[in-house]
Amino acid sequence: MPTSQSACDTELPPRLLKRWPIGAPAGAPTPVAERPGRRCWRVDTADGAYLLTGYTGVDRRAVLFQHAVTTELDAAGLPVLAPVPARGGRTLVTSAGTAYALHPWVAGRRRGGLELTFVQCERLGELLGALHAELDRLTPPVQQSMLVPTPRAADAIDAVDRMLDALPGDGTDFDALTARRLHERRELLAEFADHQPPEIEVCTVGHLHGAFHAGNLRYGGSGNVTAVLGWDALTTGPVAGEVVRAAASLFASDDEPGLDLDRVRAFVRGHRAAFPLDAGQIQSAVHRVWWERLCDVAPLRQRYLGDDRPGDRAPAGPAGLVTWWSAHLERTLDLFAAPYTDISDEAPAYG
After folding, report:
1. What is the dihedral angle through the alpha carbons of 159, 160, 165, 170, rounded to the nearest 10 degrees?
2. Within 13 Å, how many C-alpha atoms sit on residue 125's CB side?
3. What is the pLDDT of residues 200-229, one digit of tens each?
4. Sign, Cα dihedral of 85, 89, 95, 98
5. What pLDDT was estimated at residue 341?
6. What share of the chain is helix, strand, coil (3-state, %, to 5)?
7. Were both Cys, which of 13, 230, 269, 325 would link to 339 (CB 3.0–4.6 Å)?
8. How far is residue 141's CA from residue 137's CA, in Å, rounded to a whole number?
């Protein structure tokens, strides 16, 4: 991520790094990222490299809870990077009015979900299931009957209409493409307006990673995940929802819109092995995630109208995914849930 000038010009307190039991820095820390409420630097030392994060306006309780969880996950042998305790034992230290945390620098590389073999997809699903199982063991219970707000098709249609009104009547070819995409979404919203999922469902809920997608995964040379990042998104909600959102993000194709359902099936099968749910919960989650994407017109605003405000949103996926998913809704309901039915191990996803 490009670093803004303000981050580059920010000087760290001179004795800050001495508060951690690490080697002497080999040169000045290098700014690597800036996001709302935080700045990050790479710190190189003789002992290795670290990521230093500075928080402004931090919710200390939320950050410390995140640190406690990731420390336990790391201790359980999962590929999660625990914060480095300072000399006094704290994982969040304050200097000159800013809170700081230090983590080991992440090794490994990014890989798209479609680069993974079926076996690797299954292992990745099993890793997410292991994280869910360990989070369930470590964290307090979450209320079982959870009210999950459901977006309204009428609100999405209204937003599309306002975007169409904002387009010039005699614009460029790109404006014409934008109008066509917006009209396509409006037609889908009108066609499926009576498919809205319920707001209250009986399902397994708990603490979730919150952003389990390719951008937050790092892989080693053997193809195994070396680090799961993005724990600032730690949240609560239906577990099946995170499984479906992760699969939809990881296995969507850019070249031909749609989901690689063989890889999806392998991923869900791996999750089932570590944290079993049931077919009904998975199908309800598929219904809800599809509906949320159908009603979410922000990706259209970003892609076609130049609204560059993604914030902390997960990757929206290819532009044609909603259209494909709407046309194959029944098929995806069945295929996501297939690992919970009697299917042969000879199926293509497991070959």
Report:
1. 150
2. 29
3. 677 899 999 999 999 999 999 888 999 999
4. positive
5. 84
6. 45, 15, 35
7. 269
8. 9
